[in-house]
């Protein structure tokens, strides 16, 4: 299904490969369509859908770059717009919580940490004590959660505090916190 979203990008690749620079004027409405698709899909798309779009845009960009410069329908112009699409989709894919990570974070012991952090930033030792875990075990769990993109940390002086990312906060709300 995600490939259907990015069909206009595949069409741009085909235009560049088959028709050359003189046919790139046909890419303009396709780029406009991609902008509309991004606006519609971005708020709810999965990371894999966004990565697929970025990959398709990169393939289209590579095809366009093989052509020489012409005018505002030129490869440079189209390439600039495709580069912006790659940046948007790439950033969105990087900052979108993966479904597997969301499911994992909702399971014990991670779900308990989500609940504990829903009240605000906490020090590792406080979390470990409240959850009956050792400090090293808690640090390992927090490292896992940081890799899942549901927890972040920050320093205040020499102390490190952990708190939920926006995605972590949403998951905590799903847990009924």
Explain what you see:
This protein is mostly helical. The protein folds into two domains: 2-94, no CATH class; 99-174, Orthogonal Bundle (Arc Repressor Mutant, subunit A). It is 66% helix and 8% strand. It contains ten helices and three strands; from the N terminus they run αααααααβααββα. It has helices at residues 2-5, 7-19, 27-41, 47-65, 75-94, 99-105, 110-117, 124-131, 135-147, 166-174, and strands at residues 122-123, 151-156, 159-164. A three-stranded antiparallel sheet has the order 1-3-2. Helix 2 runs antiparallel to helix 3, helix 2 (7-19) runs parallel beside helix 4 and helix 3 packs parallel to helix 5. The longest helix has 20 residues, at 75-94. The two termini are 34 Å apart.
Write the layout of secondary structure elements.
Layout lengths: L1 H4 L1 H13 L7 H15 L5 H19 L9 H20 L4 H7 L4 H8 L4 E2 H8 L3 H13 L3 E6 L2 E6 L1 H9 L3
Antiparallel strand pairs: 1-3, 2-3
Defining key terms:
elongated, 177 residues, mainly alpha, 10 helices, 3-stranded antiparallel sheet, Arc Repressor Mutant, subunit A
Q: What's the mean pLDDT score?
A: 83
Largest sheet: 3 strands, antiparallel
How are the strands ordered across the major sheet? Answer: 1-3-2
- Determine Rg (CA atoms, Å): 22 Å
Distance between the termini: 34 Å
Coarse shape: elongated
Strand content: 5-15%
Oligomer: single chain
Poorly predicted ranges (pLDDT <50, ≥5 residues)?
Answer: none
Our count of helices gives: 10
Number of domains: 2
Q: What would you call the structural class?
A: mainly alpha
**N-to-C SSE series?**
HHHHHHHEHHEEH
Helix content: 55-70%
User: How many beta-strand segments?
Assistant: 3
